[in-house]
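Good morning C.,

I know you're traveling, so I'll keep this short. The sequence:
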Amino acid sequence: MINFNIPPFTGRELEYIEEAVKNRKLCGDGPFTKRCNRFLEELTGATKALLTTSCTHATEMAAMLCDVGPGDEVIMPSYTFVSTADAFVLRGARAVFVDIHPETMNMDERLVEQAITESTKAIVPVHYAGVCCEMDEINRIARKHRLMVVEDAAQAILSEYKGKAAGTLGDFGCYSFHETKNLSMGEGGALLIKDAKYVERAEIIREKGTNRSKFFRGEIDKYTWVDAGSSYLPSELNAAYLWAQLEIARQIIDDRMASWNYYREALRDLADDGRIELPFIPEGCRHNAHMFFIKARDLEERTALIRFLKENGIGAVFHYVPLHSSEAGVRLGRFSGEDRYTTRESERLVRLPLYYGMGNAVEQVSAAVHEFYSAAR
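The tokens, ready to paste straight into the viewer:
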């Protein structure tokens, strides 16, 4: 069986977890958490990086830092995970969905401005498959209308847009370290902050609304409740697990990239024949091989392809059901403009297995895709 995903494992995770246990510092912001934060700051150039319990929680923190509240609207793609919307609707806002580029599955920046109303508070681009949105235009629109930009960079660690790290292109960036991501701590994430003026409040929100971080730095003699917040600090055990992967992050990405490139070359003939479509990487974008997807002709063909691969011991899957078509999406959001591509393209997309240490399994998957389309002629 070739699984769709196998969480990355470098071999030093247990060593570092044991070290964390021996340190007798298991709650948040211990040595491993701080090490991870510094690494992310150095890696990305962010003013501040704060490890969190999930990317969902990082996005919730960003929503609070943007002062999103009841009656506000937040613009985002419908083709995304529910957390993108949840973080803002939990604050009382309404999700406003815009259509996507069919080539990248990213939010179409040309449709953002027409979705803006007097209630709009923020724009939330989602870097699908680790390929960055057109951030220059999104930021231009945000500046013009005095809106905040929160990058959902859950899939995009080590991706770049015009030489700058994904997650540092807006006001806030949110990473995921879920077990399905390139780098994992089981459940976890990180909030990246561009402007230093938000750092102190971010630390307070992350520490249950207290100024506990300042207390531990010796800046105050006692800490107290000073703002609304929650418990967004991951355990040191999770941070220790992640550190083993951050140490060799480039090696992990390079390994995934080798598999991604193999897929692209092995399946190019099917694309040239018009049987499938392959991922498109815009100029100026450097992706992180988070995902390799192909597009079948339609929903019927996609269903047949996934079934065929499963019968041959290969775990291939589709992805999001567009949020605007879901029960909660109808109630808590609205679609701005026409859904030309979101639904249609979502019904064609198939994700192929891709994980660290995949080896020659990528050849077997490619051969099976060829076999399906040979039989389908």
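Safe travels,
E.
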